[in-house]
Design goal:
Radius of gyration: 25 Å
Coiled coil: 267-294
Largest sheet: 5 strands, mixed
Number of strands: 12
Protein name: Cytochrome P450
Family: Belongs to the cytochrome P450 family.
Helix content: 40-55%
Distance between the termini: 58 Å
Structural class: alpha+beta
Cofactor: heme
Number of helices: 21
Keywords: Coiled coil, Heme, Iron, Membrane, Metal-binding, Monooxygenase, Oxidoreductase, Transmembrane, Transmembrane helix
């Protein structure tokens, strides 16, 4: 059986098989071998032709409806697949270049076809608003389906309709501003832990900030969610870290490599790593959940306290009959995936920007030193974080320049009107946040790093949907205040202790579009104690 829902793995499946008979060694008298070879070959040929027929039929039906929409026309049937093929930096470069061409012609949307997929990009905040505030039901894009085995079909990340509303309703109180102060101790604890690791690593030479920030962010979200500390930061060999890395890597490759959509190829080459990673991640969640539930039963944990980890809030709902234990398990995983990679990617780009722009780094340090009155060791308080002005603008500009989650996908369940374009049912909308954030009409000289773009008077001039670090509309990121508080605590704690430097320029990077935006040249920085 397939490890993924059939509709997810067979979408636009295609692979060209080349078999060299010279490399095969077999016995001509082995009839079983010949029978298997014939059956496999016949199945492969039939599968290939069924895929071609499906793609041709779909193209003939949809092409008349989209042929007049603005955007690159590509080749018949395959569309622009050759333009986006390549490494993980290629699609972003392609979409950004084509978006700039379309904007120059006065267009507000752009439609691209890729191996039968019809993808439309809004090119400004007004068009994003039309999507974000639409009452028409849409579902998450096809590429999110891979995550269901980890976070469940009912997860807020991929659920639809009433199921999504129920998930959103039970999760919203957990990230209310009144709960954020309860997480502040966790943020401070792990920020201080990271500082100690930086102190040790800085003595060895350049520091791999991306790796450190990734493990530290995992510590924060697991501690906040599960109420326990696995010390991933100081234990880089922990199997859970490897499992998360393997799973997210396979998720991205599954989205980008069509051969992985074919079940037998998946089962033959990728399924073992996928299953091992999935089992390891589920095992840790199940162990913590079992121990936590037992502690609740024995009275060691009081679910009546106001401030408690996310897992205890879920267990309280389970006791009230509002959630099953299976729901609790999957929702915990959903919170972890939503609060780990994106936050670590955001922090990576922030520290990269600080290191490459020392004049701005000094301004941040001067502001932080003034707020903390030179105290390098005390915890951050809510008042400290509110007092950050220039540092806050710096963080926001980094998130504009280097959108941590570069693409949000939606699939249309019915025809949809966006501006002057009528988009057909079954097509997809890609809100390419990187494209929106580099709109020269909104952000002149958009590749110039300028925190003053986020002065109140400048923000007031823009459509709110021209800045989307946490997506937008009813399906925006629930944990955005949680994430911003964590980011500010880590930045303020680190800049009190250290200065960061790089021998590269800010834009001397490639932008890899994976689950999150990653720097292809890494984030290797010189870290110096102040």
């Amino acid at each position: 059986s397939s490890p993924l829902p059939l509709k997810k793995t067979k979408r636009f499946a295609h692979i060209k098989l080349i078999i060299s008979l010279d490399s095969l060694v077999f016995c001509p008298e082995d009839q079983a071998f010949w029978m298997i070879l014939i059956l496999v070959s016949t199945a492969a040929v039939l599968y290939y032709f069924s895929w071609v027929f499906k793609m041709v039929a779909g193209w003939m039906y949809q092409y008349p409806r989209i042929k007049d929409l603005p955007g690159p026309k590509g080749l018949p049937l395959i569309g622009s697949v050759l333009e986006v093929a390549g490494d993980t930096t290629t699609p972003l470069r392609f979409f950004l270049a084509e978006a700039n061409k379309a904007r120059a012609l006065g267009e507000q949307t752009m439609t691209v076809t890729i191996l039968g997929r019809i993808v439309t990009l809004p090119l400004n905040g007004a068009m994003v608003k039309a999507i974000a505030e639409s009452t028409e039901e849409m579902q998450k894009g096809k590429d999110y389906g891979f995550l269901s085995a980890w976070i469940g079909e009912d997860s807020i990340v991929i659920a639809l309709g009433e199921m999504w509303k129920r998930s959103r309703k039970r999760l919203t109180p957990m990230f209310h501003y009144t709960m954020l102060e309860g997480y502040l101790d966790t943020f401070n604890k792990h920020a201080h832990n990271m500082v100690e690791v930086l102190r040790v690593e800085s003595q060895k030479g350049v520091v791999d900030m991306r790796n450190i920030l990734k493990r530290s962010s995992l510590d924060v979200i697991v501690d906040s969610t599960m109420g326990c500390n696995f010390s991933f930061l100081t234990n880089p060999g922990h199997p859970y870290i490897h499992a998360v890395d393997t799973f997210t890597n396979l998720a991205q490759r599954h989205n980008m490599e069509p051969q992985m959509w074919i079940n037998w190829i998946w089962l033959l080459f990728y399924n073992r790593d996928y299953k091992n990673a999935l089992n390891e991640m589920h095992k840790l969640t199940a162990q913590v959940l079992k121990a936590r539930a037992l502690a609740v039963e024995t009275g060691e944990i009081d679910l009546g306290v106001k401030i408690k980890p996310v897992i205890d809030q879920f267990l309280a709902l389970e006791q009230q009959g509002k959630m099953s234990m299976k729901d609790v398990h999957y929702d915990i995983n959903g919170v972890i995936i939503g609060g780990h990679d994106t936050t670590s990617a955001t922090l990576t780009w922030i520290f990269w920007s600080l290191a490459c722009l020392p004049h701005f780094q000094r301004r941040c340090q001067e502001e932080i030193d003034q707020i903390f009155e030179g105290d390098q060791d005390r915890d951050c308080t809510p008042e400290d974080l509110k007092a950050l002005d220039f540092t806050d603008r710096f963080i926001k500009e980094s998130m504009r320049m280097f959108a941590p989650a570069p693409v949000v996908e939606r699939e249309l369940l019915k025809d949809f009107q966006m501006g002057e374009a009528t988009l057909p049912r079954g097509s997809e909308i890609f809100i390419n946040i990187f494209v929106i954030h580099h709109n020269e009409e909104v952000y002149p000289d958009s590749w110039r790093f300028d925190p003053d773009r986020f002065l109140p008077e400048e923000v007031a001039k823009r459509n709110p949907y021209d800045y989307l670090p946490f997506s937008a509309g009813v399906r925006n990121c629930l944990g955005q205040k949680f994430a911003m508080q964590e980011i500010k605590v880590i930045v303020a704690t680190a800049l009190r202790k250290f200065s960061f430097a790089s021998d590269r320029d800010l834009l001397d990077q490639g932008f890899a579009t994976e689950v999150v935006l990653k720097p292809t040249n890494g984030c290797l920085l010189t870290v110096t104690a102040r």
